[in-house]
Specification:
The protein is of the alpha+beta class and 181 residues long. Helix content is 23%, strand content 41%. It has four helices and eleven strands. The two termini are 40 Å apart.
Length: 181
Amino acid sequence: MTTPRRIGCCITAHGFGHATRAAAVMEALGRRLPVDCTIVTAAPAQLFAESLSAPHTVHSMVVDIGLVQRDGHSLQVQVPEHGAGILWVDGKVERLLAAGSYAFWKFNRNVVVELVDLRLQAVEVSGQEILTKDKVSLRINLTAAVFYNAYRNLQFTAHATPALTRYLTGESRYAWLGGRT
């Protein structure tokens, strides 16, 4: 028997929609491969006991961070110590937000805050098979450590992590290796 894969899941307790949806995803994963789920949430543990047959542990803790909208006219933001926020007003960068709490009026304008995690992050691409010009098969693993310093440039947005992952897993690796075979 294979060792179960450990899955960690932090779930907001604003209603039970997030919790039931996450439980359904973990249940579907549990049907495909052996998993052991660690769940951190303020939602009742009974909810997971009734809907999740995979082995799991529930830790009761409030994990809500980031954006809170109390009404339709204001936006309240909590920027964590390890992050920064980019304030967008009507699709244009207004300013950078350092760690702390902020509130903005949204009346007659579109206000969005993108949170950027400034901690060192790892992006890993494993087990890529590449055939060289002389028909030699290579198996390549790539690990990159990334941190955001470019957030200081106001044109940078928080969408860089998915773009970087696509770049590292896309055609660029073939172009990089193609000149080295």
